[in-house]
Design a protein that fits this description.
The chain is of the alpha/beta class. The protein has one domain. It is about 30% helix and about 20% strand. The chain is built from 3 helices and 4 strands, in the order βαβαβαβ. A 4-stranded parallel sheet has the order 3-2-1-4, sandwiched between helices. Helix 2 links the parallel strand 2 and strand 3. The longest helix has 12 residues.
Length: about 90
């Protein structure tokens, strides 16, 4: 059975705990979550990532590269929600 957020697309750029946990909760309610990781994987390598990122699709993007920024922009254009937890800049 579809959850109440079925049809909502979330792009998750979050790192550490807050972003992935928020995305997990949205996914638990039926949202489609696409996880964007930097090269090398999440900045905090913890076994909890297996729980927080369960059911998510994922892509690795290096946002310092123009081509990868273009991919990120296209993902964001298709999203209903974006999550990011980066410091300004």
């Amino acid at each position: 059975m579809a959850g109440p957020l079925h049809g909502v697309r979330v792009i998750d750029f979050g790192q550490y705990v807050a972003g992935p946990l928020a995305a997990m909760l949205l996914g638990d309610q039926g949202a489609e979550v696409i996880r964007v990781d930097p090269p090398g994987g999440p900045r905090w390598n913890t076994p909890a990532n297996a729980v927080w990122n369960r059911g998510n699709r994922s892509i690795v993007l290096d946002l310092k590269r123009a081509d990868d920024r273009d991919v990120a922009r296209r993902l964001l254009a298709s999203a209903d929600v974006s999550i990011e937890t980066s410091a300004p800049g």
